[in-house]
Amino acid sequence: MLNVPLPANEAERQQALDRLELLDTPADPYLDTLTRLAHDLFQVKMALVTLVDRDRQWFKSRQGLDVAETPRSLSYCSHAVLRDEPLIVEDSQVDERFAGSELARGTPDVRFYAGWPLHDATGLPLGTLCLADPKPRQFGPQDQFKLRDLAYLTENYLHLQHCSQQADALRDALSREQRKGMLDALTQVWNRAGLLHFLPLERAAAERNQLRVGLIYCDLDHFKQVNDQHGHDGGDHVLWESARRMSGAVRPQDVVTRNGGEEFVIITQVHDGRELLQVAERIRLAIASQPMTLENGEVPQTASLGCALLAPDESPVEGLKRADQALYRAKRGGRNRTELAP
């Protein structure tokens, strides 16, 4: 049950959000760059691109938060969408609009909030670019101008993304409910069901483009030590950050999936084994380039990768098996390296 009023044009607003086909889609490296910039610029715990759905707020991009969604009833973004104007809450415990409310009591980690509405091309509010922090803070006019500019970049990118060929292909291939079942909630990349779904599609596309399907198995090195030393929350953050770095290292048309645990599989279309190794090396270097920042310190992380070119008469299962075997050769060879299957 929502305890925040709905906008008068809620039905129209929800239809606009549904038409964009952004809900329950993989993370986007461009949006992650914007939220990371906002996170660092304002020095807050959380920076998010939030889409306000029927009964939830879903995070298309997130920094400083490990969950994919939260109830709409416990959402400052819902109030920003309701008013269709920026919402600044410097201290929820004393703000006359929210002090003592269920929202303020139910979100103790969000004592400070600043959200700027994001609209579709017709001007309907869809969600926000927002900042949140457990400590109160002042947020003056210059801060608001900076948040406005970042929201402008975010909003216009969403418009462009909606018009792109990649978005058209995704809409044609999967319904929203299918996407939800194929998306890994923690890392916000496709899960194993997504891997199995996209493999034949990528193979058909590669044949049309006169290319080869490349498979890259990526396994985070010594990941158990991360969980042992930093707890599962720390391990979850390393998985999330690793997925971000992988997605940022590959091309927009490549498919990044989480196969389970700390193991990922990337599907890519390439000309030959040399190009496949170049893609894999970009992924390896992106993960190992700098430590991952946790609340209690920094964690150096590396990955081992195994690659295989799918043969014309080979089943995807056999191709994945060869890539997996190459991965184990990389681990036996010292880890933090890439091997290509014969």
From TrEMBL:
Cofactor or coenzyme needed: Mg(2+)
Localization per Swiss-Prot or TrEMBL: Cell inner membrane
Domain GGDEF, first and last residues per copy: 211-342
Protein name listed in UniProt: Diguanylate cyclase (GGDEF) domain-containing protein
Native source species: Ectopseudomonas guguanensis
GO CC terms, sorted: plasma membrane
Signal sequence residues: none
PANTHER family, sorted: GAF DOMAIN-CONTAINING PROTEIN, SLR1143 PROTEIN
Positions in coiled-coil regions: none
Molecular function terms from GO: catalytic activity
InterPro entries in UniProt: GAF, GAF-like_dom_sf, GGDEF_dom, Nucleotide_cyclase, Rev_trsase/Diguanyl_cyclase
Main location as per UniProt: membrane
